[in-house]
Amino acid sequence: MFGKLFKAKKETFTIRAPITGKAVSLTEVPDEAFAAGHMGKGIAIEPTVGKVVAPFDAIVAHIIHTNHAVILEHASGLQLLIHVGINTVAMKGEGFNGLVQMGDQVRAGQTLIEFDIEKIRTAGYPLITPVVIANEDEAVTETEVVEGKVTAGQDAVIHAVLAK
Amino acid sequence: MQQTFTIANLLGLHVRPAKQIVEAAKKYPNTQVFVEKDGKKNSAKSLVNVLTLGAKHGDAVTLIVEGEQEAAALAEIGAILSANIDGHGAKA
């Protein structure tokens, strides 16, 4: 499958893990919209460290006011949504510390959000974090995901063929 | 045509309802769909643009549709804007 991607002669863009943990299929996310891919193609990470880092140089296109989700925009136009946990919107920011603001230019590896794994778990919300391409119909033509143990900022989780 | 809706969802237009709006808007490729709040008018076909409205529960959002099947688009997307998507289960 990879060979096919690289032979396509289009630019392949590698997205590294924004969180340290275990990368699993989106189908394991206990939320139908994410699991069915309606929120975009990508992967999910079961976090072992409560920190979201920028997987590439980007502009912060949006950070939810409750700091549980962020959308980064790469220079190619690709937008990546990182949504920490499921239904964590209901925590109203409790347990989340946002370190960036909308419009910020961030560097690969820079910490964007810190979150309290224990607090979220105690509140009863799944920590599994979908990492999906928010504008896949405009930005990418194909994607491949890589599952397994990942370290934030180091291991690739998504290979995307850019549309332009 | 346009119509103003009050956001019924207790948690506001967060990621999931915003995405539902985007998906509904994209069903109408020959129609321009915008959401407007406090003078900020954004395309409803982009998740980032819908989210950056920052619409919260009780906020008034105007839906503006121009093109084919305007009435159908207005009805479908308006229903999402005025739905309490998170329902009773949301610990709001």
TrEMBL record, chain A:
Gene3D superfamilies: Glucose Permease (Domain IIA). It is found in: Cytoplasm. Its main location: cytoplasm. GO terms for cellular component: cytoplasm. PROSITE patterns: PTS_EIIA_TYPE_1, PTS_EIIA_TYPE_1_HIS. It holds the Pfam family PTS_EIIA_1. Residues 31-135 form the PTS EIIA type-1 domain. GO terms for biological process: phosphoenolpyruvate-dependent sugar phosphotransferase system. GO terms for molecular function: kinase activity. Keywords: Kinase, Phosphotransferase system, Sugar transport, Transferase, Transport. The keyword Hydrolase does not apply. This is PTS system glucose-specific IIA component.
From TrEMBL, chain B:
The keyword Cytoplasm applies. Residues 1-91 form the HPr domain. One of its GO terms (biological process) is phosphoenolpyruvate-dependent sugar phosphotransferase system. Pfam families: PTS-HPr (PF00381). It comes from the Bacteria. Keywords: Cytoplasm, Phosphotransferase system. One of its GO terms (cellular component) is cytoplasm. The keyword Transit peptide does not apply. Its main location: cytoplasm. PROSITE patterns: PTS_HPR_DOM (PS51350), PTS_HPR_SER (PS00589). It is found in: Cytoplasm. InterPro entries: HPr, HPr-like, HPr-like_sf, PTS_HPr_Ser_P_site. NCBIfam families: PTS_HPr_family. This is Phosphocarrier protein.
